[in-house]
Every structure is written in structure tokens, then in C-alpha cells.
Amino acid sequence: MNEFPVVLVINCGSSSIKFSVLDVATCDVLMAGIADGINTENAFLSINGDKPINLAHPNYEDALKAIAFELEKRDLTDSVALIGHRIAHGGELFTQSVIITDEVIDNIRRVSPLAPLHNYANLSGIDAARHLFPGVRQVAVFDTSFHQTLAPEAYLYGLPWEYFSSLGVRRYGFHGTSHRYVSRRAYELLDLDEKTRV
């Protein structure tokens, strides 16, 4: 790793990979883009809004290989100090971000039936990143973790009890990473104490 570390942030969706490369020291975006049309013949990669590049092999691993190649062209590959993955659903197992281990992967897989279109794609991204960036620490950030403080009457309202007791189906709340950012930013801009409810 060189002296200017960066973070690679990956959001694998059901048919795309959105990504950003951030300078650790300044949080400046050095590179951003999307690989879209994953698993279709029309898959492409677009970096910083430039002309799209067709992907010869449109799966998640090959899309991440193309992203890694773009990092290499910019001499950023050895600078990747951390990879962050947005994970759609953590169920009741994940209440905060975690370092990715084999056990974490198994548990993400376990809750994936709650978000099958997204979590399995997220797992494909983790697997591909582990192959392409061996030894680089990876973190899972769960979209559902922000809403883990919902009271039982809020997350069970309107559902038959057996859905929760036998299937684990409950209200979770989504887009938590965005909600967390907006609420923190509101506290900063309004100069509020963090204990104040907004």
C-alpha cells in the first residue's frame, strides 16, 4: 500500500455496481462510476461520466475486474486500504457495520431470503473483491442497521404474528445509510446536541 490510501466503496445492486474511490485524508472522490446491465449482453462500465465501455463478460466478477483495471490505470490499486460494501439487508443479525469475515458472509447469506434481489448480488461483490484485492480489509455497511431502534410495536404493526415468529418477517426500514447521513448532517447544520430528537 502506498502512502496515499484510498477507500473503494461498492454498491452491488440487482443489475449494477455503483462505486466510488475516496481519498482517506480528505474524503474527496477521486473516481466514481457504474457498471450497469450486469448479466446481460448490454453490460457496460462508465467512469466519471465518460463514454461507456462495453463489458465482454457481464458478470459481477468481470465488472469488478474492469473497475480494478481502471484503478490500475490511475495507479490506485496499491492504494486501496479498505473496501466498503453497502449490504441491503442485515435482518436482526446486524445492527451496525462489521468487518467482513467468513462468518459474516455466512450470516448475510442466512438473511438473504429477506432481500433476494440485492443481498445475493452484494455477496457476489464481496466474493469478487476478495479475489481481486486479497488481503484488503472489507467492511459491510447494512442499510437496515439505522432502523434497528424501532420499537416492537412499530416493527410488528400490521403483520400477523406468525410471519414474524416463523419467518422473521417484520418492518426493518431501508435506505438507512442515507437516513444516517441526512440526520447527522442536520445535527451539524443546526448545531444540535446529538441527544436531541429531530
UniProtKB/TrEMBL annotation:
Its cofactor is Mg(2+); Mn(2+). InterPro entries: Ac/propionate_kinase, Aliphatic_acid_kin_short-chain, Aliphatic_acid_kinase_CS, ATPase_NBD. The gene is tdcD_1. The record marks H175 as: Transition state stabilizer. The keyword Magnesium applies. It is an enzyme of class 2 (transferase). Keywords: ATP-binding, Cytoplasm, Kinase, Magnesium, Metal-binding, Nucleotide-binding, Transferase. ATP binds at K18. Substrate binds at R86. Its EC number is 2.7.2.1. It comes from Salmonella diarizonae. Mg(2+). Can also accept Mn(2+). Belongs to the acetokinase family. The active site is at D143 (proton donor/acceptor). This is Acetate kinase.
